[in-house]
Prior knowledge:
Structural class of chain B: alpha/beta
Shape of chain B: globular
CATH architecture of the largest domain in chain C: Alpha-Beta Barrel
CATH superfamily of the largest domain in chain C: Aldolase class I
Distance between the termini of chain B: 63 Å
Distance between the termini of chain C: 59 Å
Largest interface: A-C, 55 and 51 residues
Strand order of the largest sheet of chain B: 1-2-3-4-5-6-7-8-11-13-12
Number of helices of chain C: 15
Number of strands of chain C: 23
Shape of chain C: globular
CATH class of the largest domain in chain C: Alpha Beta
Strand content of chain B: 25-35%
Number of helices of chain B: 3
Helix content of chain B: 10-25%
Oligomer: heterotrimer
Strand order of the largest sheet of chain C: 11-21-20-18-17-14-13-12
Strand content of chain C: 15-25%
Order of helices and strands of chain B: EHEEEEEEEEEEEHHE
Radius of gyration of chain B: 19 Å
Number of strands of chain B: 13
Amino acid sequence: MINKGFTKLPKMRDFSACAIGSMFNLEGKRISGKKTAEMMSVMKERENGLGAGYAAYGLFPKLREYYCLQLILDDFEAKERVEEFIKDYTDIVKEEKVPVKKDVFREYPLVWRFFVEPLDRQNSDDVMKEIMMHINCSIRGAFCLSGGKDMAVFKGNGWATQIAEFYQIGGVKAYMWSAHSRFPTNTPGWWGGAHPFSILGHAVVHNGEITSYGTNVSYLKEFGYECRLFTDTEVLAYLFDLMVRKSGYPSKIAHEIACMALAPPYWRDIDSMSPQLKKWATAIRITHRRGMANGPFSIVITTDYPKPMMIGHSDRKKLRPLIAAVSDNESTFYLSSELNAIHTIDDTKDFWQPDPGKPVIATLGEPVVRGTRKPFDGLHIA
Amino acid sequence: MAKKIKKTVIDAEPGGRKLYHRELNELIREAVRDGFNWITLINVCGQRFIGAGIKEEVTIEVFGDAGLDLGVFSEGASIIVHGCSEYLLGNTLNGGELVVYGDSWDITGMGARDGRMFVLGDGGSRIGIHMKECEDKKPAIVYGGRVKQYCGEYMAGGVIVVLGLDYSNALRDKGKDLKRDNIDPGKIVDFVGEIVQSDLGAGIHGGSIYVRGEVPDDVLGVHASRGVFDDGDKKILSPLLDRFSELFNTPTDLIWSKGFTKIVPISSRPFGKVYTPTPI
Amino acid sequence: MKAQDNIIPRFKVDIDLDECSKCGRCAVNCTFGVIEFDGEVNKPVVVDDSSCVACQRCAVFCPKNAISIKDYPVTYAPHGNWTPWHLRGINEQAKTGSVLLSGMGNDRNQPVIFDQLVWDACQVTNPSIDALREPVETRTFLGRKPDKLSFNEEGEGISLKDVFPNVMLPAPLIVGHMSLGSISYNAYTSILRAVSEVGTLFGTGEGGLHQDHVVFRGNTISEVASGRFGVSPDYLDAAAIEIKIGQGAKPGHGGQLPGEKVKELISDTRGIPLGTDALSPNPQHDIYSIEDLKTLIAALHEATEYRVPVGVKIAAVNNVAPIASGIVRAEADFLTIDGFRGGTGAAPRVVRDNTGIPVELAVASVDQHLRDEGIRHKVTLVAGGSLRSSSDLIKIIALGADVGMIATSALIAMGCRVCQQCATGKCAWGIATGNPGLGRRVDMEWASRRVVNLLRSWTADLDEVLGIMGIDAVESFVGNRDRLRYVGPNPDEARILGVKHAGSRIDLGGE
Lengths: 382, 280, 511
């Protein structure tokens, strides 16, 4: 039984408070989503059953050069409308119904995925971004959950444990997991409103509310990103894509610039920086001033650009919780709203609270820097 | 007045099913009503509001990580956590003693009116925000480790102490419970670097903050200023630090090996001049 | 009342002779010839009510509060259409046969849209911030911004190319142009001292820069207007340069400093003969079309070696949005929009009262238009005309201005009562006059303190309001119309402003 509310876009802005749980196997070993689901299950107080989701990376080793468009659809006709649209811009290499467990929800959408390769090889990322945005805004009955390579987002309207069961997360293996459950104040029923919000290979989970929403939306519009989904997380994901990929910044520093632009240091701190760093911080802050995310936020960004990495970031006033941890054998990195969620699956003693406004970045195959990082630490900036 | 100790144990995860906080707290209150005054909770993992609103002088010993709002609104309980305590420890505390053998992050002791909180490890932002004192009710927070921004913001009374001691190599057996006898006093060292972050005492208008060691000028918050540390302060700190030393097996001469920087308000109405009543 | 004027006075001045201490201050202070001190009978006498302009100087300076100034107690037969304003206007033009000149801004009853706007506060889903104890940042940079950063690859390192020149302001608030000549030396110097202390900018106006004021160059915006008075290379070496195309009070009209106000000081600074009218032509004669503007901007950039931001000021008129777009594409570093309520030292009344559109609508429209064209992020938008309180400042920022500009408000801080007699040069407060004797009535120490207080208290108000909205940096508030709500009668207005109506739950236009 399909309820048309799954993919219908909201008319009002959505505010929510939530839980975040993520884990990243730094050696690239693919593990079942069961543990992530367990992390989320102990933070049930933070959700109200109206949205949860999981992002997973490393899912399709045999199809990893193709973009995977994972969709929720009101019905089969909607899927055909999507197919009709995308075949003009891409080669469809494979398509399949995403297996779900039938008796978890009374009503649920059809979940489908296409593995595609854009015809325009040069601008494949931009094409896929446009396709995703078009599907979400203009194709009735369809919503694109994710459109990155070798990754997918599984989300919907339910408790974190229900969503995990529905999508059979326990049987899905990935080296990087990011999950979220929420407590929204409106738009019940819209499966697309849950987090993670994903564009290309980036996925964002977010606890908090952006007071700069209006400013950010207008800034993004100038650079070709239409925010039509009225969620803060959409804005964060697009801001990240803009600064990390679209801007063409050198890949060594793009994510550092993005993190600093989202939560720049206070001017009083910039004033007392060394001349080199002061020049960078001032230039970043002035240039991307409208991309600053104001208001409380704790976010986890997972991305595969340029390399798989997981970024935990928070607002400068530290108004939402976030705890980071590394397993005792240094193989796994965790981020979570509460420590007990991490301790449920790993009783590591190596945990810390990241500093306000300073990102924690874990990259595949590299050791994690504990505690406070200096901005642009270890990078050659002149 | 030696009270007879009557113990009981409550499993927070009986048969593998994690108890919801409401269930756990009901069991705790039931035990209190039944006259138990030493209630041990095992397998705790993030349950919230443990000891909420308790007025009786009972001891609750928690094994595992406690969830948010440990001891919120309580008045007489002694709660010991062998693990970490999530944020909002001692929220609006009215009395009693909370002890954490681990970290406890943001907003500890928010609006506390009395009682004492002792944390072995690190804190987060806004420790002791808007703590207040009145006559003989004087709350206190002592952190063994470091804290972050806005420590003592809006403070209107009470005492906050930050010691900057690193216990990460002092735990004898990391596999065992975090307890007093698991701490090796010889392996406790001073943290290198800053133990408080910016905006220390922002808007403080009562009470004092004591930071062990030196504090650079640029971390002082709005209208916070340095006070003179004298014998009166020693009298205030000694019982607190003696208790800390006892709880966490930390030698008092290590604690007192550095002087304390005292942070006090510039006045009881520091923002008096910003607002002007107007006749128009 | 003088019979040959054929019209009753506007105001009646009464002196309570029982209270009067016979000090004579009222007579000394009045510059309009209303009160004289009769030495023979030892009392002040009201000799000419009809000249009173209600500037309040006499009443404020009377030590006994013995002076009252009221509406003249002769009633006009009530008429919904032929109001006293119309009757007087016709009388004046019948008397003089000329274009009536007046000072200050439009005083008519067209709607003030600021008063139809309210803003949001954070509750429950989002905490507000306490601006007194936690940082709320208002630092603003005036100047052109790049689309994104550009890099030099240098061996192993990556370094930044320089960004465009920008002027750092402690808050999004500057004092707009008022020329030396339109206001007195003392008033002008007071404002310069104030902006210098606060760290913000003052527009020099079109009067050139007096040598005494060269020391304040780092806090000035030099105006390059159609009269090109005082424009020398040194003059251009300011914090910023602004090409004045128009002014809110008199769009399309040049400037005029009536000869009465051209005393020695002005004559020297502007380089014109004593007593002549200082006239600025209506257009700038090297700008007849948009590409000419681009040429002038480039010329100024070259002359200042690209060190100084060069901006353009226009009045808010019907097609302000595409005009603004053209200006941004002409490489202007900042764009100032002056609304139809803007003040002036002198302008034809008919122009002042009817030309141009409210700055609220202009800013919203320009901001949206520039965003639609994808160029909003490049330029700093400055707006004024008229910002009467900190709430107007805050609203204009939310509507889309990066920086708010005040002028009349600064004069009021120094004692101005907006009696609108600036064009006569007889300002009893010593502000809008070229008469050095009158100018000395402005105590520079006192006046600059007052302007400093105004700038700082408005900034403190801005901090508070940003805090209650949960915003801790003003750059997240510029153009954030989502935080405003409209409570006025006209839904079209709300739509053009891009502001939702209060209480609405459905998203309207805007984003």
